[in-house]
Amino acid sequence: NLILVRAAPDSISEKVEESIKNAEEACSGDPVSGECVAAWDEVEELSAAASHARDKKKGTDPLDAYCKDNPETDECRTYDT
Amino acid sequence: MAACTVYSTQSLKTNCFISTPSSKTHYGFHSKQIVLYSTSKRNKRVNNPYVITCAAGDTQTVVIGLAADSGCGKSTFMRRLTSVFGGTAEPPKGGNPDSNTLISDTTTVICLDDYHSLDRTGRKEKGVTALDPRANDFDLMYEQVKAIKDGVSVQKPIYNHVTGLLDPPELIKPPKILVIEGLHPMYDARVRDLLDFSIYLDISNEVKFAWKIQRDMAERGHSLESIKASIEARKPDFDAYIDPQKQYADAVIEVLPTELIPDDNEGKILRVRLIQKEGVKNFSPVYLFDDGSTISWIPCGRKLTCSYPGIKFAYGPDAYFGNEVSIVEMDGQFDRLDELIYVESHLSNLSSKFYGEVTQQMLKHADFPGSNNGTGLFQTIVGLKIRELYEQIVATRAETPVKAAKA
After folding, report:
1. Partner-chain contact A36 B233, CB within 8 Å
2. How far is A22 from chain B (nearest CA, A)?
3. How far apart (Å, rounded) are the C-alpha atoms in residues B153 and B244?
4. Could you state, in order of their start, the residue ranges of all structural domains in chain B?
5. Engineered SS bond to B273: which of B12, B64, B307, B329, CB 3.0-4.6 Å?
6. For residue range A13-64, what is the model confidence (pLDDT) as tens digits?
7. Is pTM beyond 0.90 here?
8. In this predicted complex, what is the ipTM?
């Protein structure tokens, strides 16, 4: 029951993938070393950034985005009474 | 401070003054910072000789601290809080697109990651995490938060979460309410003393794991193992440096797995506890039915139909790290609006301005995570409490205008 959402912009996605590989490598020798812990911390930071980028992307309604640039068009005009 | 000119174009209550920073500057960088930034040419413009200060009326900035681990819903809380004050929070216009700051009419939210003293490469070289105090510059954090509280604008660094580098700084003007959110708002005693109110979001390990699966499983490269490994690796530092801050918080929102379903580990239904410190100035805790009693309440029955597994509330006095506290607890989730208004009508001391305000705020953001359970409810209530605290502080200052001296 996991919901699949659109992935974050490719550059961050790639970075996340790369950082996981690096972390797995860094931890293969010594699982409690500072190097290993710092590598997993980087994974967390990038995953959070990717998730924020995803949220930003999906939050916009196409009509809202259009109306921001074209407030004078028929489909966007609103009047306060 | 040398020059001090007042220009009042908008209203006489607005205090604006232009000052020339003296050698004892507390809004710029101390020497350690200059070394960090000297690689970039753009930073030479940092030393702006004039600082324009506009304190909002006779009031000082009210400072709120919010502590939580990354991926624990800080940003959702922030959006609920700024919505209580009206208007939406947006990144500073025309600045760095990766800025972590959010600005609305009344509130400015700054992310404490901007005070990292080591960037991503630096932490890797030293083998420390971002949770480690050694990766953070508490001196600069204290100086800048204090300056903003005193009505002085600062040039705050930007930690870029995408590149992992420290970017050129941005100008932060003193707002009515400053929220500092991040991993360490209550770690340093000097910063802690500047806070007018503090909140800690305490997510239990089970729920944290479930939330991170939801967040990361769609991401390339992640697996159950990698999510688990990341949580496990950060845990020693989290327990040593982040978790102990909750003893200082005026309000703690604790998120636990439900007790309504035996052995539930999906993390979808939550038991959320709002732990409120007693005796905090300008803050009076919310209660259920009768202040100070111990109560367990199941609202489902003749007047309210709930679907499985229902809703259960609890309220009572307790002790938390040696402090006297009042705890309101909600287990389960709402299916429909009438449930929420029914619950709201039985809670007292909500600091709302009209009947139904909590429900209305929750409805406004029905799409935010947590809007159907205790996380959204208690975050909204804390938002109303902060509004009341702000109004009380402003009112107290207005009574003694002469004492509100300028620094």
Report:
1. yes
2. 11
3. 31
4. 57-200, 250-397
5. B329
6. 888 888 888 888 888 877 678 888 888 888 888 888 888 888 777 767 889 8
7. no
8. 0.76
The verdict on a CB contact (< 8 Å) between A43 and B226 is yes
CA distances from B394 to A32, B177, B195, B281, B404 (A): 50, 11, 15, 13, 11
What is the CATH code for B57-200? 3.40.50.300
Q: How far, in Å, CA of B356 to CA of B365, rounded?
A: 15
Chain A residues within 8 A of B161 when measuring between CB atoms? 45-46, 48-49, 52
Any idea which residue has 């030479």 for tokens? B44
Q: Which residues contact A27 (CB under 8 A, 6 or more apart)?
A: A33, A36, A39, A40, B229, B233
Burial of B53 (0-12, 13-18, 19+ CB in 10 A): buried
Is the bond leading into B309 cis (omega within 30 degrees of zero)?
A: yes
* A12: closest CA of chain B, how far (Å): 7
φ and ψ of B292, to 5 deg: 95, -10
Question: Is the Cβ–Cβ distance between B398 and B365 less than 8 Å?
Answer: no
- Kind and range of the H or E element at B346? none
